[in-house]
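Contributing new records

If you add data, match the layout below exactly. Sequence lines come first and carry their own label; structure lines follow with theirs. Keep one chain per record. Anything else will be rejected by the validation script.
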Amino acid sequence: MIAKEYRKMLENKSAIRELSEFATARGKEIGYENVFDYSLGNPSVPVPQSFTDTCIRLLQTQDPMTLHGYSPSLGNPYFKEKVAESLKRRFHLPYTAAHIFPTSGAAAAVAHAVRCVTEPGDEVLTFAPFFSEYTPYINQSGAVLKVVPANTETFQINFSAFEAMLNEKVMAILINTPNNPSGVVYSTETIQQLAAILEAKSQEFGHDIYIISDEPYREIVFAGVDNPCISQYYANTLVCYSFSKSMSLPGERIGYLAVNPACKDAETIVQMCGQISRGIGHNCPSSLMQLACAEVIDETSDLSVYETNMNLLYEALVEFGFTVVKPGGTFYIFPKALEEDAVAFSNKAKKYDLILVPGDGFGCPGYFRMAYCIDTEKVKRSLIALRKFVETEYPSF
């Protein structure tokens, strides 16, 4: 007999992936350049040339066994040192290599982090709107994900709902800022309030509550936006990072878990990750990717195009009558649909070759996500289709 749980998951495929597949199929009919595909959060800017040059140099000059052999179970020491040095330099916290665990992207970092600080049956809270894959990430660890309803006015944390859901079974809070799908960046005030509540509740409940901070969009923050470092405000913070967005390397699956040096049992948590890997088949990311990223640790792709695209879309959406919170980062925007049913709204948009993702899977029915990691020229052309869609299907707006 095959596993029932995973077979059942086949009935609930990712809406994002299904829409992306639809866009690809439609592109074969009319040319993909004519499909305004806002479905998938796949970076649209090239990797830094320095990264490419580093890979070439390493491949030409280094021992093949070093590049392609297994790294130690806790990761390549050089990569860990370089990550720690960068975090210490940028955020003024005393990270060392002992606080870093290399992973296959931020998803693997979250998978390790939740297993470090929860037991089966414990609860993890996250805040809507949230990345829909958090549900399998958390629930398949044995913990239980609970979603705090959104504050749709600002997409900052809904603190009244949060405090009502915070109970003794909660062992971790999973946050994502800059946020997918809203593009909102949690403010310093928001993080300070969250930290104060968790410190008080940890004392009241008699156990630590951890923040698992999912930060793959940390480097994509727009001009003038307040972007606090979570670990500066809360000791028990586990940061999950990926180079997928900052260096446009999603296919290379490289990132890390960084445990705040002030966290209780920080170095033990990193050691535990090596044991967790044995159970989930992680066994370290690519040796070549660890070495290459270590060499260009503070480099990023040219991320400025995302702010350009955001401004074009935000201004057009407001002009066309949408209610939308202006993103502070990422390459996502999350407007309110022009009817209550965002699935129906997104299906109507397909007639105009606009591929929009309903917000239901993100915990916010009635909204939709646009991933604007596409060429600016294509964004501009999509606005013509978007205007036609609104004027034809929703003339009252």
